[in-house]
Amino acid sequence: MPSYVVTGASRGIGVRFSFTDVLEFVKQLSASDKNQVFAVVRNKSKATFLQELSRKNVTIVEADVTDAKALGLAAAEVAKATDNKLDYLINNAGSSTNPGFTLDQFPSPEAVEQDIIENHSPQYQCFPSAPQERLSQEGLMLSSGFGDLDLTLRGEVPAQPSYSIAKAALNMVVAKYAAQYKPEGFVFLSISPGFVDTSATQTGPPSAGALEERKMLMKAIPLIAPNFTGPISTEQSVKMQLEVFENWPVEKSGAFVSHHGNTTQWL
Predict the structure, then answer these.
(1) Active site residue: 144, 164, 190, 253, which one?
(2) Gene3D superfamilies per the record (predicted)?
(3) Domain extent for 84
(4) 56 is catalytic
(5) pLDDT digits (tens, 9 = 90+) for 135-186
(6) 203: domain CATH number?
(7) N or C terminus of the chain with fewer C-beta within 10 Å?
(8) How many CA atoms lie within 13 A of 151 on its CB side?
(9) Distance (Å, rounded) from C-alpha 80 to C-alpha 67?
């Protein structure tokens, strides 16, 4: 029975080129009763979408990814349930703050530093079921095309500096894990979900910063994807990501690719 851990799994997040609806991973993976899915959330009581899903093969695990002790307890819970044989880790926990800001719009150097720290820290906390305890055979980290140098330059995208820096660093974390554990057969992959329409899970109007960010993005799209026709659905994005992830060869462990499985089509 294949087992999966999905972090940041409680709900979907806004319409952006960088994000996807993580709940959709849980939905698609748990659609088969042959799979066992552990959905890691910060607060069980607020994970209403997961509770409404109500599937016997989904276990909700509470842990704040910025709390090492909480992650350790969550890992122990999963280890016990899987007899130390977790197969897949899908890690999406993280944050995005100050949307729309460019580096010169921050009020001070200290504000830039703090924003980078806030974007960085959750993504380094690779669920402690990672290979050190031999609980996971494959790890997928959700990244973003914003973390790609070539896309940033071709698209002339100055927005989301802290988030982009964090994602570029995350891609290196994945590469480091791969370099260490590829000889043992572990697969690590960093993937961008594409431009995903998650408006169905949005609550309330977008902030002024989010609108400014979107304006910058729309200006960049013709430069990076002249044939772009619009965002894809969460269902399509997750289906494509899982197909890439579950078929990724160990020989290419550590790569950073799009939901198309390449580095040329980010949308």
Answers:
(1) 144
(2) NAD(P)-binding Rossmann-like Domain
(3) 3-258
(4) no
(5) 567 888 888 888 999 999 999 988 888 888 888 988 998 999 899 889 988 8
(6) 3.40.50.720
(7) N
(8) 24
(9) 20
